[in-house]
Amino acid sequence: MLRLLVRFVGLLSLAGGVAALIVDGTRSIAGGAVTQMAFGQTLKWIAPAKFDLIKPTVQRLHPLLWDPVLVDLLKVPTWAILAICGFVLLYAGRPPAPQIGYSSR
Predict the structure, then answer these.
(1) 1-19: pLDDT as tens digits
(2) 47-69 in b/e burial notation, b at 16+ Cβ within 10 A?
């Protein structure tokens, strides 16, 4: 049951990544230049009040976690983050491989 839920969330994440790629492509065609919405911009657009709380919370955990890691992660395009998360969840939710030497019946 958990594997089904993980695969479903992975498919939703992958579909969101494709939708974000289409939106970025449409904006690029309309603007005449390649534009991609960063993951940080998307988070700020979805929840502006919560986005401002991310930095103090992460810096309280560990100061180096914010600047070299999360700042660069928030600059990655949204479609790439969603697609990678989707593929990882689909891989994690795959059925187990059959054991060697046992019948499949």
Answers:
(1) 899 999 999 999 999 999 9
(2) eeeebeebeeebeeeeeeebeee
